[in-house]
Structures are given as structure tokens and as C-alpha cells.
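hiii so um. not sure if this is the right channel but i have a protein structure encoded as C-alpha cells and i wanna go backwards to a sequence. like what aa goes where. can anyone help
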């Protein structure tokens, strides 16, 4: 075989490598089609401090876990890598870890009990705007749940499932061993709502890779200490305390993941 032919057959081989079988349409539940026969019996849900209305509220709602049961998880997806993506009518999206939805009870509310007979919702003030949570609003009755792990999106229209490495594509490591993968799974569960990596993720805290990776200017031995207990480093920090939530070994995996991203910066 000539070099030329060899090259062509190699290219052919590479192109024929099996592609990961990502569905293009992620498994989705269209909330506009929800009713008590295809979803679950509605329940009365009490919230002691609603972050949108800033007061105690009572809603009619479907349990989130029941809606999730109606969404088939493809066999190729591991549930610890999965996110629930909530989409609002204007296209706004927010995500949370799939498994967190089974440790705390969330509810998809469709009616405010304080609304008058012919209305389902009361308006609220959002900055200077007058808004409504209609058609659906995600609420969490348990007191004091972290909002960065348990979001309260309103005007919801659908719930879908996606792997974190697809939804937060640029933040996902292309080259990873088991510990780096675990680090990314943890990061997308606990950190990404506030921090971006490769500009993918939240904006409450600083970006951790662009232009400098956190490990390029933060002492490595201090990094895990900071992640576990940020207030031991900075008074009044907005970064939550993770010592009681994440083990020291898991924090090491998060650090492995963050360091890996140093060699995978987006341009
Ligand atoms: C509720 C939002 C929030 C969450 C969740 C959060 N952080 Fe932070 N983090 C911050 C903020 C805000 C800062 C910046 C300044 C400060 O208050 O210290 C910060 C600072 C940092 C810093 C120092 C960055 C610098 O350049 O000073 C690191 C590293 C960090 N966070 C890592 C993490 C990791 C890893 C997780 C997940 C285990 C996480 N954070 C979760 C808000 C958050």
C-alpha cells in the first residue's frame, strides 16, 4: 500500500469510529400537557418563605418526582451525570442535578391558592416589572434549601434531561480519568450554578479557567481548603461552606478536574 492509500484508509477508519449516540432531542416532559391523569394527583403545598413573593404561600402542585418518572432515561446515560433542565416560556433555562431532585421534594405549582376564582396566579414585582409565574412554577417546601442547588424558576413550560457534559459543553473535560470525571460531576452538581469554566456556567462567582486557570495563581494546597471552608479565608464571602456537604477526597477530585482544564482552555 502506498503512503497515500494508507493515509486515506486511516482517515476512513477515524471517520468510522462510533460516535457517542446523543439523542438530538433530549427526553422532555411538556408541562402544558400535564393533567392529573397523565401526571399525578395535584397536592396542596405550603411554602413558608417563597423567594419570589417573599412571604408564606400555598399552591396546587404536581410532585416533581412524579413528573420525572414520566421521562424515560436512556440506558446510555448514567443518572449521576444527568441534569434536569427547566425551560421557561421566554427561553430562559436553569439546571439542577437529577439526583438532587430525589433527595428533596420539589413541586411544579400550577395555581396559587390565594388567587381569585377565575385566576390561577397573583402577579409579583420583579425589579420594576409586574410578572406572573404562569403557567408553572417550581417550588421547594422544605425550609432553607440552598437556592444554588434547588432553583425556583417560574413561567415554566418544560422539563428535560441532559448530561452535564452536553449542557455545559465547554466546561466538560475532553481528557479525563475516573477521578477527573468524578470531579466534573461534582462541579456540575455543586459549583456550576455560580462559577463558569471556559465561560460555561454561572456568574455569581469568578470564572475559574479563562484567561488563567485557578491553579495557575492559587496555591494548590490552599485550593481544597478554600473550597471546603471559604470563610476561613475571606470574611463575608458569598461562597457556601462545603465541609459538611463534600468529602475531602471528593474535593481533591474537583481540584483534579479544575487543573485538567488548564490544558483545555477555549480560545
Ligand atoms: C452560591 C454561589 C457559589 C457556589 C455554589 C460556589 N461558589 Fe465558589 N465562589 C463564589 C464567590 C461569590 C466567590 C468569590 C469571592 C468570594 O466571595 O470569596 C467564590 C470563590 C471561589 C474560588 C476562589 C476564586 C478566586 O479567584 O478568588 C474558588 C476556587 C471557588 N470559589 C471554587 C468553588 C467550587 C469548587 C465550588 C463547588 C464545590 C464553588 N466554588 C461553589 C460563589 C460560589
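sure thing!! here u go:
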Amino acid at each position: 500500500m502506498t503512503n497515500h492509500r494508507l493515509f486515506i484508509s486511516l482517515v476512513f477508519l477515524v471517520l468510522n469510529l462510533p460516535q457517542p449516540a446523543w439523542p438530538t432531542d433530549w427526553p422532555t416532559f411538556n408541562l402544558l400537557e400535564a393533567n392529573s391523569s397523565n401526571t399525578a394527583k395535584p397536592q396542596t403545598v405550603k411554602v413558608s418563605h417563597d423567594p419570589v413573593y417573599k412571604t408564606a404561600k400555598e399552591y396546587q402542585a404536581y410532585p416533581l418526582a412524579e413528573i420525572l418518572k414520566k421521562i424515560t432515561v436512556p440506558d446510555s446515560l448514567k443518572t449521576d451525570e444527568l441534569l434536569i433542565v427547566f425551560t421557561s416560556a421566554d427561553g430562559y433555562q436553569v439546571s439542577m442535578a437529577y439526583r438532587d431532585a430525589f433527595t428533596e421534594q420539589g413541586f411544579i405549582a400550577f395555581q396559587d391558592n390565594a388567587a381569585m376564582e377565575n385566576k390561577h396566579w397573583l402577579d409579583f414585582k420583579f425589579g420594576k416589572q409586574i410578572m406572573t409565574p404562569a403557567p408553572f412554577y417550581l417550588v421547594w417546601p422544605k425550609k432553607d434549601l440552598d437556592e444554588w442547588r434547588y432553583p425556583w424558576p417560574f413561567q415554566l413550560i418544560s422539563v428535560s434531561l441532559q448530561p452535564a457534559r452536553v449542557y455545559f459543553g465547554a466546561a466538560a473535560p475532553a481528557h479525563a480519568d475516573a477521578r477527573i470525571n468524578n470531579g466534573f460531576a461534582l462541579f456540575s452538581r455543586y459549583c456550576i450554578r455560580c462559577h463558569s469554566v471556559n465561560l460555561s456556567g454561572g456568574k455569581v462567582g469568578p470564572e475559574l479557567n479563562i484567561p488563567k486557570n485557578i491553579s495557575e495563581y492559587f496555591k494548590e494546597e490552599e485550593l481544597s481548603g478554600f473550597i471546603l471552608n471559604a470563610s476561613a479565608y475571606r470574611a463575608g464571602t458569598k461562597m457556601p461552606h462545603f465541609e459538611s456537604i463534600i468529602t475531602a477526597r471528593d474535593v481533591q477530585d474537583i481540584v483534579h478536574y479544575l487543573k485538567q482544564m488548564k490544558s483545555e482552555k477555549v480560545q
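oh and Confidence is low (pLDDT under 50) at residues 5-20.
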